[in-house]
TrEMBL record:
Ranges that cross the membrane: none
Family membership noted in the UniProt record: Belongs to the ERG2 family.
Endoplasmic reticulum is among the record's keywords: yes
Compartment annotation: Endoplasmic reticulum membrane
Record protein name field: C-8 sterol isomerase
Documented EC number(s): 5.-.-.-
GO biological processes: ergosterol biosynthetic process
Keyword ATP-binding: no
Organism: Serendipita vermifera MAFF 305830
Origin superkingdom: Eukaryota
This protein's pathway: Steroid metabolism; ergosterol biosynthesis
Length: 238
């Protein structure tokens, strides 16, 4: 099949238009990625201005609760929530102490109660009366485990000796760190994560889709976390 000169010119123009459109598309996406990257860098550098909690203060509060209530987990939790409510008010603190639900993540299973959840911070009680073990996850936030009752063990890859965290101690996992961890029977912790919290959600929900298929727990997790994040956003807490 042969083409006339006119048809060849038309095909040539069409090819040039396609090439130009591709170049414009690549330029547009490159600009979006460039701006997006530097926006993320900027937000990451200033995210601390949105923090309202303080890790040393939470550690002191945990130790005070343990000193007053010993191994009475209910008393410890009530002491912590009452003090946080007095300090930050109900606009930032979820006082529904009966609002517990299961959490399956990294192969470990426990029960949790969300005290606070926002874009840059979460504060929860997590633990189990039975004991559990699993993968910590590799997160975009610093994670402080204030052990309230019982004992937690942990180890990095290649470690020949375990790390031991008894009641009253803090197990800090910095952003990007990963460990195997174990919470013994009756171990509960005040867990404070500070950083980009929504990016932790895939790890927190992954086992629900790949293992348990527990849609009620999925709904409870998403609904309560979302409610608390929106509630805090409405009062200016990012």
């Amino acid at each position: 099949m042969t083409f006339t000169s006119k048809e060849k010119r038309a095909n040539g123009h069409a090819n040039v238009k396609k090439a130009n459109a591709k170049a414009v598309s690549w330029s547009k996406w490159s600009a979006i990625l460039f701006v997006g990257y530097w926006l993320c860098v900027f937000l990451d550098r200033i995210k601390s201005r949105w923090y309202i909690f303080d890790a040393p203060m939470l550690h002191q509060l945990s130790q005070a609760a343990i000193a007053l209530h010993g191994t009475n987990t209910t008393g410890i939790i009530d002491h912590i929530v009452t003090n946080l409510t007095e300090t930050y008010g109900t606009k930032h603190i979820n006082t529904r102490q009966d609002e517990w639900f299961f959490n399956n993540a990294g192969g470990a299973m426990g029960t949790m109660y969300i005290i606070h959840a926002s874009i840059t911070e979460y504060l929860i009680i997590f633990g189990t009366p039975l004991g559990t073990e699993g993968h910590s996850g590799r997160h975009t936030a610093d994670d402080y485990f204030n052990i309230l009752v019982g004992e937690q063990w942990a180890a990095k890859a290649g470690a020949l000796e375990m790390e031991v965290y008894p009641a009253g101690s803090v197990h800090l996992m910095k952003r990007g760190e990963v460990k195997q961890y174990k919470m013994h029977r009756g171990c509960f912790a005040l867990e404070y994560a500070v950083g980009w919290i929504p990016l932790m959600m895939p790890f927190g929900l992954g086992d629900l889709f790949s293992s348990t298929f527990d849609m009620i727990t999925l709904w409870e997790t998403v609904a309560i976390t979302g409610r608390e994040m929106i509630r805090n956003l409405l009062v200016g807490k990012i």
